[in-house]
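For consistency, the fold was encoded as C-alpha cells, which produced the following:
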Amino acid sequence: MKQIYSSIPTAQIITELCVKNHIEHVVISPGSRNAPLTITLANHPKIKAYSIVDERCAAFFALGMTQRFNTPVAVVCTSGSALLNYYPAVSEAFYSNLPLVVISADRPEHLIDIGDGQTIRQTNVFKNHILYSANLKGDFHNSEDQSVHDFNAKETHKALQTAILKQGPVHINAPFDEPLYHKVEKLSAKLLTQKAFDLQPVKFDNSGFVKAWNSSKKKLVLVGVNLDEKIDKEVLKVLSQDSSVIVMTEITSNISDANFFTNIDSILAPIEQESDSVLLFEALQPEMLITFGGLIVSKKIKKFLRQYKPKQHFHIDPREANDTFFSLTQHFETSVNSFFKTVMPRLDNVHSSYFESWNAIRLKTLEFREIYRQQIEFTDFAFYYSLFETLPQDEIVHFANSSSIRYANLFDSKRPIKTFANRGTSGIDGSTSTAIGYAVASQEPTTLVTGDLSFLYDSNALWNQYIPKNFKIILLNNAGGGIFRILPGHKEEDYFENFFETTHQLNAEHLCAMYGINYVTAHDQEEVNKELPAFFERNDSPQLIEIFTPRLKNNKVLLNYFDFLKNNINFKSMLYFKSLES
C-alpha cells in the first residue's frame, strides 16, 4: 500500500517528526484548513488516528489517552475558534503535567486581521498555559525553500521534545495556503536529523531533609494526585512504620497501606466545630511536612496547613513544586523512589506518640462511619457506601469534579482500584471525554462516576465511535449542582436555584438511546442493591446507570455526618497532649 502525503512540506515535516518522537496516537477534528495535516497523519502506518468532531471533547479525549500512556498524544484542528475549544484541556494538561500536543492549522499571515473567515490571532494563543509554542512559517506545495523547512522542523522538534521531557502541553501552529487537498506519494521535504534534547540531572543537597527528619517528632506526609509512579515497598514501609509519621492520602494518590489516613476531611471537619479546635489542631500541626504527587482535593487540609504551618516543608517531584501551604523549604527535583533510596540509610526511626494518638481517632471515624450508614436516608452519601463495596477488583475509576470526587474521598474501596480525576483546574468540563479517552487507550474495564451537571455539560463526549464495550458511567442525578448546597451561601434566596444550583428535570435516557448505550435507573437503596452488581457484570455494550437522589436532602445528610463524628468521638480525651509536646 502506497504512502499518501499532503503536497505541503510542512504537513510532511510535522508528521515525520511526530513519528520520530514516538507519537502514535492523534485525535483529529474535521476541518478544511487542517486538511494537509489530516491527509498525512491519518494515512501514516505508524499513527493511529481518531476522528472526534467537538474540539473540546477531542482535546479531553486525548488527555485521557495521555493519562494511560504517560506519553504525548496529539490533537489536530482547523483554524479559528476551533483552536480555542482546546483551551480547557490545555490548561488541565498544564496544571496536571500531561504531555498534550496541540497542532493547529492557521491562515497565512497576510490573511490575518483583514476580515477573512474562520481566522483569529493564533500565534501564542495559549501563552499563559503552555510549555512551548512553535509558530511555524508558511510554505507552498513542493516548495524547495530549505530555510523554511529547517526552521519548521527545528521548531516542531523542540516542541515535541519539550512535551516529552518536561511533561506538559505544547502548541505547534502551522499556516497553510490553498490549495489544501493536493496529495503526493513521496516526501518532498528534506528532513535533516534533529538532535535529541536531554535534561541534565539536578544536583541537590538533602542534608537539611535528613536533619529535619531525625529531629522531628511530628512528621506529616501528604500525597496528591499520583498517576504514574509506583512507590517502592521499602519506601512505603519507612513511611508507614515510623511512630512519628502520619501519611495522608486521597483517592487519587493511588497508593495504599493499612496505616495511611485516607479520609482527611472526616478528621478535620469535626475538629473545626470543636470548642477547643485550636488545641486539637496544634496537636496535629506537623513540625515537618513532606509532599509528593500532584494537586490536593481537600480544601480543609489546605486551610489547616496554611494556618498551622510546619517548620519545614519539603516537596519531592521531578517537575515542579507548588508552594500550596506558603511554607516551602526545598524542592527535590527527582522521583520519590530515587530520593528515598538516597536518604533512607541516614533516616532514624524517631519515637513519638504522633501516629498512635491520631490513628486511634482515624479508626474511630471509620467505626462511626459504618454506624452512620444505618441511620440515614437514601442520598448521594448513602450511595457511595454501596459503590465502594461493589466496585470490581482492579477497576479503573474516573471521578468527575465537584461533589463526585469529594464524596469519594470520604470512603475506601474494598478492593484495589486505580483512580483518576481532572484536578489540574478542577473544572466540570471534559470529565466524560477524559474517561472515554483513557478507556479507549487502555481497553481495561473503566467506570466514570459523575454528577448530572458535569455529565450534561460534556454530553458530546458520547459522540464518537470508539467507546469500548466495557466502559461504564454511574450518573448521580440530584437535579442540579449539589455542591452549591454543601458550600456556604444563602440557599433560601430566590436566585439560588436558578443561578447557583441550576435545577433541572433532565435525564440521560434519550442520550443513551441516541448513542447506543445501555441504560438503567435506580431511585432508592433497594434498586441500587439490585441493579449495581448486575451493572458491573454486563460487558457486552457501554453501560450507564442513572441514580436519582433527593436534591434537598443530600447536603443535610453529608453535613450531619461531620456533626455525628464530632458528637460521638471525644477527640481531646483520645490524644496524649503531654506526650506530643515532649
